[in-house]
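Reading a protein record of the kind used here takes little practice once its layout is understood. An example of such a record is reproduced below.
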Amino acid sequence: MKVTEVLLEPFLPFCRRFLPSRLAGLSLALLKSTALEAAILAGHLLLYPTGLTPERRPAVPPAPSAEPDGTARLPVRAAPPVVLLHGFIDNRSVFVLLRRTLAQHGGQRVESLNYSPLTCDIRTAAELLGRHIEEICERTGSGRVDVVGHSLGGLIARYYVQCLGGDLRVRTLVTLGTPHSGTRVAPLADAHPIVRQMRPGSEVIEELTRPAPGCRTRFVSFWSDLDSLMEPVETARIDHPDLMATNVRVTGIGHLALPVHPAVATGIRQALDETHPEERVAGGLTVA
């Protein structure tokens, strides 16, 4: 998927005159990406306070059993709820635009979860995610959910699915800029234990490389060639022989733009709309 890039016209003459064509193209893309990241960061800082409190959980209205004229309504398979999980030192406000897109176009129930910024262990966060998902399933009457995780949120969700039996509950897991193989960026941040768990070769990363036969969850990983927090950038790909995984390369945007950019949102919506391998069509109805 090619993401539409933002043009910075004032820099074009300079890049074309003083840089080789290939290097100029790369530098220009990096300039565009950096400018977009800065704009997104500024907007996110304004929205950040709005996401500090937990999201309200409205009651689920009962589905009507008949049409307004009294005729019986045919049973339909409702799309599973979508759970959004943010990244490190962030909160649910990062998903303001994405949740609106999913709710408007997908018709799915969307819930954003916050985990504590003091979280120091991916395993503990994955257990808490599992409890939240159980509560959502009980409250909504749905047997499964879809999850979209940004950065660390995707790693927490993957650990839940792959190591804690969460594949029974998670139908599709979409990750955005998640360090599936570990990232080497910002070595000074190793003072934080959860950052150390996101390093290549950590115990958590090693656990995710172990066999996972029969995993029921379908994985879709969006990774960007200009993601400055993924080192190397290919670490945001899922490469595991036992997992049903699709890797989608995004070009021209950085880490913060992944949960915000409309082209990525469209790709996420398409990924969630795809028929799961476990689902089949019977009598005109899609059943699991």
In short: Residues 99 and 169 are 20 Å apart (CA to CA).
